[in-house]
Hints:
CATH class: Mainly Beta
Order of helices and strands: EEEEEEEEEEE
Strand order of the largest sheet: 1-11-10-9
Pfam families: Kunitz_legume
CATH topology: Trefoil (Acidic Fibroblast Growth Factor, subunit A)
Low-confidence stretches: 1-11
Largest sheet: 4 strands, antiparallel
Number of domains: 1
CATH architecture: Trefoil
GO molecular function: endopeptidase inhibitor activity
Protein name: Miraculin
Helix content: under 10%
Mean pLDDT: 83
Shape: globular
Amino acid sequence: ALVVVGAILPLAYGDVVLDVAEHPLVSGTEYHILPVNGGGLGLKMRENNSCPMYVDYNNKQQGLPVVFTPYKFVKPIVEAADLKVQVSAATVCAQSTRWRMKFDNRLNKYFVYAGSASSSSKRDLDYFRILESEIYGNVYVLSFCPSVCDNCRPVCGLLGTYTDKAKN
């Protein structure tokens, strides 16, 4: 599952985000998120095969395509812009496939799930950012630090993976 790991500071808009073919990312176009160590991102039920589905890393598959939609229309998509991320696939859950944040009290972590807004997920805060990696060249990282709400104090951090005791 994807979780927020580490803290980051809000950033100003940056350079144009490029895909693997070095073309600018365009709002509404399907893209696969390809982790540096291979595989891709998909959706998976976390516990008891119940909805909502959580964003999941699979090291053996390319994953499901996503569509990025900026909060403020910018063309092309630039670094640090607030983005809605939506999986472009149908699921067994009769819910939205838009990425959202949800806090797990038991694990004391924020997880990325796909679905309708819940009481622990404020709509204004369900935006993500693409940032250039400070470690790898020509690589981007995904972060959570929306600026769409002037009066909000969101949790900020880079997205990372979480593995439970059952190796999920």
